[in-house]
Design brief:
The protein is α+β, with helices and mostly antiparallel strands. The protein folds into 2 domains: about 110 residues, q2cbj1_9rhob like domain (Jelly Rolls, Sandwich); about 60 residues, no CATH class. About 15% of the residues lie in helices and about 30% in strands. The strands form 4 sheets. A 3-stranded antiparallel beta sheet has the order 6-3-8, with no helix packed on it. A 3-stranded antiparallel beta sheet has the order 5-4-7, with no helix packed on it.
Length: about 180
């Protein structure tokens, strides 16, 4: 919820729970491709830090020995998946195993924000050829849901469909009349 270095609220990585409803602006998903046994190193986390309301000591942020007891390196096997809020203090301990560390890291965010330095507004056709409508919907660049763009909807029983959430017609007409564009 906060930037652990400055102690300031960070809306881009915010995790919150209000009246039993959990919201998370950025979800990390690490698909483990090689075993990570106890003491091997790799992914580590400070449990519960996604709920932090105070800045962390710099030595903790830097992985100093004085705070090593708070760092947890989960034991995982190839095929395991670790889901974590990006607002959780996390990182990687030095890799000590004899085999290479392998994982696939994915990040999921609301449709109105991008996270990452390699953001590209469009995908090359070769990357999207053969994708299903659901796959295409989740690979769109960031946008406001009021822009009449396709969104993936997952029902309580896990069924997926594509829907378009349209802005109020009166508001769209106002934008067109006043600004001369479909959206303002």
């Amino acid at each position: 919820m906060i930037d652990v270095e400055s102690g300031k609220y960070n809306p881009f990585l915010a995790y919150s729970c209000v009246q039993g409803q959990i919201s998370n602006c950025l979800l990390g998903c690490s698909v483990v491709l090689s075993d990570h046994n106890a003491g091997d190193g790799g992914f580590c986390v400070v449990r519960g830090s996604h709920k932090a309301n105070f800045a962390a000591p710099q030595e903790m942020i830097d992985g100093g020995d004085a705070y090593r007891e708070f760092l947890v390196q989960p034991e995982t096997k190839a095929g395991d998946v670790i889901l974590f809020s990006e607002s959780t203090v996390h990182g990687a301990l030095p890799w000590t195993a004899d085999h290479q560390r392998r994982l696939a890291l994915y990040r999921f965010a609301p449709p109105t924000m991008a996270y990452g330095r390699s953001y590209s507004p469009t995908w090359p056709a070769a990357m999207t050829d053969g994708m299903t409508p659901a796959q295409l919907a989740v690979t769109q660049p960031p946008f406001s849901v009021r822009l009449d763009r396709e969104q993936l909807v997952v029902s309580a029983d896990g069924d997926m469909s594509i829907a378009v959430e349209s802005r109020n017609a009166r508001k769209k007409a106002f934008d067109k009349d006043v600004h001369g564009t479909d959206y303002f």
